[in-house]
Amino acid sequence: MDKGKALHFLFVKSETKTPGGLAARPVLTSYYKSNHFKNRPFDAYNNYTSPTADIEAGSLTPRVTDPSVREAVAGILRADPELAALVRSECSKGDWAGIITRIWPSTKYLDVIVTGAMAQYIPTLKYYSGGLPMACTMYASSECYFGLNLRPMCDPSEVSYTLMPNMCYFEFLPMDSAAASGGDASQLVDLARVEVGREYELVITTYAGLNRYRVGDVLQVTGFHNSAPQFRFVRRKNVLLSIESDKTDEAELQRAVERASALLRPHGAAVVEYTSQAYTKSIPGHYVIYWELLAKGPAGGAAVGEGTLERCCLEMEEALNTVYRQSRVADGSIGPLEIRVVRPGTFEELMDYAISRGASINQYKVPRCVTFPPIIELLDSRVVSSHFSPALPHWTPGQRSDSD
């Protein structure tokens, strides 16, 4: 870090209020808005410049109106028409492949998080960076910093974290035990007793006062560094769908489907089966819900038109939690929800496929979220119509939902 400079993108999210009036916001947003950050002493390793300046003219954007800020920045700005011409030329070529190294040719690597749900952005990062190495350095959450990747330049698919026992007291709930679905503390194992290959839910006791707090992350032990176990992030527990910071579980998805399907009743139709996927092949990603409709009554479901199904999409979004709706409305990090109607009999075909792969016909249940490519291909090959939410769901800062 003492050999050059870093370009950081710092994102501040909208905050909400608890019923008692306390501010609720992500930990990084809290830090970036704090006096501790804004009035920090000079540090060569954390030297930030803001707000945006006009490179060509060497002047501050007119949007900054505070006189003291303008005066302070004006003292250090210098016009650089040559650099401005380079940026304008590269960005106007239409093809943004490798744009990072075209503008900053000395760039050595990207410092990013590409595990879990963030893995969807690896192809995009490769495209814009021209294939620069990606360093995934740490594992942390709002509750606590957890661990470091001791091989930060490894391939993203090989990232494992070594947990640091001085950050908090770590315990682990085996995912193959009865305690995983309950809360039996007798099943907990400490950091020194985890086994390679097994999956555990992370449980922490922190200096800030969280006592045996279930983080909700499922980790798999991949090996050891000396005597310290190393873990791979597997998934969020009980989360079906997640695009960004949103987390939708099975019960919430069920409620949303029920609420939306009520709009079908006047048209003589109902949802007979459904499943879902977090579609991340485009950015922003979005929820895809597969519906198989059952036609009832003399109308036979024929009157269910485009407008009704679009309203069903929006109704589902209105039923989802505040974090999802904030991401849709304020952040734009999730795209409109999509309902794909599949032809009758599709879910029977899905069951036949699962049984052909060894599933028990007596214990088979329709998966409420699918990730296995052949299953997604089967569903997509049976789609008869596709519909998107026509508007943004309702969301206002400070709003909370029952599932928050």
SSE blueprint:
Blueprint: E1 16-17, E2 23-24, H1 27-32, H2 35-38, E3 53-54, E4 59-60, H3 67-74, H4 81-91, H5 99-103, E5 110-111, H6 122-129, E6 134-135, E7 138-140, E8 145-148, E9 161-163, E10 169-174, E11 189-190, E12 199-205, E13 213-225, E14 228-236, H7 250-261, E15 269-279, E16 286-295, H8 306-319, H9 322-331, E17 338-342, H10 346-356, H11 373-381, E18 383-388
Parallel strand pairs: 5-6, 16-17
Antiparallel strand pairs: 1-2, 3-4, 7-8, 8-9, 9-14, 10-11, 10-12, 12-13, 13-14, 15-16, 17-18
Pfam families: GH3 (PF03321), GH3_C (PF23572), GH3_M (PF23571)
InterPro entries: GH3, GH3_C, GH3_M
Domain GH3 C-terminal: 252-372
Structure write-up:
With 404 residues, the protein is α+β, with helices and mostly antiparallel strands. It has three domains: 16-110, no CATH class; 136-236, no CATH class; 250-388. The chain is built from eleven helices and 18 strands. The chain has helices at residues 27-32, 35-38, 67-74, 81-91, 99-103, 122-129, 250-261, 306-319, 322-331, 346-356, 373-381, and strands at residues 16-17, 23-24, 53-54, 59-60, 110-111, 134-135, 138-140, 145-148, 161-163, 169-174, 189-190, 199-205, 213-225, 228-236, 269-279, 286-295, 338-342, 383-388. It has an eight-stranded antiparallel β-sheet, with no helix packed on it. Helix 7 (250-261) packs antiparallel against helix 8 (306-319). It is globular, with a radius of gyration of 25 Å. The two termini are 39 Å apart. Residues 297-301 have low confidence and may be disordered. Residues 161-236 form the GH3 middle domain. It comes from Zea mays (Maize). InterPro entries: GH3, GH3_C, GH3_M.
